């Protein structure tokens, strides 16, 4: 996979274009073999969790999803939660970062984990994870205060792999991926 794959912008106006095949997927957490990411992203997350010795406290909730799986999550949420909630927290099928294998939803390990809005705190080991994430290639994709740009409500649990050093550049500049993609476009033209 090349650099443009890892930096691809996926949102309602930019569908997921490049989808890894099954040979390019791997499990970032050994206790959750069915939750997969693109293999380089998976390796990066695994290294970060190993560094924090956090495999028992930080668990993956959702990683790679096929288009059909994203469609099912959307349909189920529409039935259960209605349109207003669903469009805030569930990406339109075809336009989810989870379809690229570059996104992961994480939770604090607990008996009842909410699948759509898992609890991933800002303090303790979770805060340490957040502080180290950019140096492992991960950004917090939907931060508070950027909803007018991302059109997704704050999601403290959703991390997106963009690679090193881009995650640090994006995080240090306080940007979301839409803004970073836009600033790159401007500097090229
Ligand atoms: Zn997510």
Describe the structure.
This protein has 189 residues and is of the alpha+beta class. The chain has a single domain (3-16, 32-188), classed as Muramoyl-pentapeptide Carboxypeptidase, domain 2, CATH 3.30.1380. The protein is built from eight helices and six strands; from the N terminus they run αββαβααβαβαβαα. The strands form two sheets. The protein has a four-stranded antiparallel beta sheet with strand order 3-4-6-5. It binds zinc ion. Zinc ion binds next to β4.
Q: Which characteristics define this entry?
A:
peptidase activity, Zn_M74/Hedgehog-like, globular, binds zinc ion, two-stranded antiparallel ribbon, 6 strands, Muramoyl-pentapeptide Carboxypeptidase, domain 2, 189 residues, DD-CPase-like, alpha+beta, VanY-like_core_dom, 4-stranded antiparallel sheet
Give a brief outline of the structure.
The chain is an alpha+beta fold and 189 residues long.
Uncertain parts: none
Q: What portion of the residues fall into strands of 2 or more residues? A: 5-15%
Helix content: 25-40%
CATH architecture: 2-Layer Sandwich
Spell out which ligands are present. Answer: zinc ion
Largest sheet: 4 strands, antiparallel
State the separation between the terminal residues, measured CA to CA: 25 Å
- Structural class label: alpha+beta
Number of self-contained structural domains: 1
